[in-house]
Amino acid sequence: MKVYLDNAATTAMDDRVIDAMIPFMRNHYGNPSSVHSFGREVRSAIERSRKKVAELINATPAEIFFTSGGTEADNTAIVCGIESHGITHAITSPLEHHAVLHTLEMCAKKGHIKLSILDVNEKGELDMNQLEELLKANPKSLVSLMHANNEIGNLNDLNHIGALAKEYGAFFHSDTVQTMGHYVHDMKSLPVDAMVAGGHKFHGPKGSGFLYVKKDKKIHPLILGGAQERNMRGGTENVIGIIGITKALEIAYEDMAEHQAHVESIKKHFIQSLTQEIPGIDFNGLSADLDKSLYTVLSVSLPPSEVNSGMLLFNLDLEGVLASGGSACSSGATVGSHVLRAINHTPERDTVRFSFSRFNTIEEVDYTVGKLKELYAVEA
């Protein structure tokens, strides 16, 4: 049996997404910048996709720019937001994805900004008083704080952060890669200036993404070389990716409440089963709090074990359970998770990030718990 519980890293593509993409591989292959009929029909498909994405998140088409994924979108929002708005100070947290942290660190190293890092407690909660103090002392900063953490699942209150950012004239960017397609984002009411998406996190294709930039916070392009994406991203568009991410987002919004209820039931059952079956188990951050964490992520801290130490993910893989130790973007690296370090996680305890999708089942969870019991030699 194979149990895939690494959906925060990537998700299986929905068959309906594949079906929507195939015609643009086989028949509608024109370059959207070409003036002939083949080009015009593809250009029309891209603009229909832009309109649909904007409609789903309650934005305008002029605020949506298709990218190669969340990393490019984050880089564009940060680098070009800083340059376009003359920003000299940025605020972030130690828990951000490296697409954000490394980009801000580079900007600081080059002398473009001064960078402030918020304090977090051992549950990964941000110090909101510190955020306000920093904004008071540094108005018109860039604030870059994610909606939900990709490793420990903590949800941040975008309305609260956005209200503070607005009060002090800050540019608020949020990495929403883990929540897009899983939560409703209403850009008419959400006080966010820029946010991002990666299609493969909600059953769309890899290499697809988009950037939302509020119409009164316009920024210049990161990638030059053409007038594509309304002069915001040079290069021939990834047409099949655009078609795919749009279809995936449409499906996500159509069935979001049903999908959420299903995944939440799986996560709740998993928490209860692990707590009952494996003494000494714990959960990282707020991931076991169903109200304060991303419903697709559970970060599990397992008791110290000489047999499994450093080998737990490998041992699970041998038993057919596919999961992650943290962020998949750091897999294979010798450096441990910066997120777990920031919350002072005990290194003697192995951590596994289990992440779920609508394709998972209770039976798969029970199988996984059974294999963990075997690995930890827990008596029945």
Secondary structure blueprint with pairings:
Layout: E1 3-4, H1 15-26, H2 37-56, E2 64-67, H3 70-84, E3 89-92, H4 98-109, E4 114-117, H5 128-137, E5 142-144, H6 158-167, E6 171-174, E7 194-198, E8 209-213, H7 228-231, H8 239-254, H9 256-277, E9 282-283, E10 297-301, H10 312-318, E11 321-322, H11 338-342, E12 351-355, H12 362-375
Helix pairs in contact: 1-8, 2-8, 3-4, 9-12
Provide an overview of this structure.
The chain is an alpha/beta fold. 39% of the residues lie in helices and 12% in strands. The strands form three sheets. The protein has a seven-stranded mixed β-sheet with strand order 2-8-7-6-5-3-4, sandwiched between helices. A three-stranded antiparallel β-sheet has the order 9-10-12, covered by helices on one side. Strands 1-11 form a two-stranded parallel ribbon.
Helix fraction? 25-40%
Number of helices: 12
Structural class: alpha/beta
Q: In terms of per-residue confidence, which ranges show pLDDT below 50 for 5 or more consecutive residues?
A: none
**CA-CA gap between termini:** 22 Å
Question: How many strands?
Answer: 12
State Rg. 21 Å
Please give a handful of descriptors for the protein shown.
single chain, 7-stranded mixed sheet, 3-stranded antiparallel sheet, 12 strands, 39% helix, 12% strand
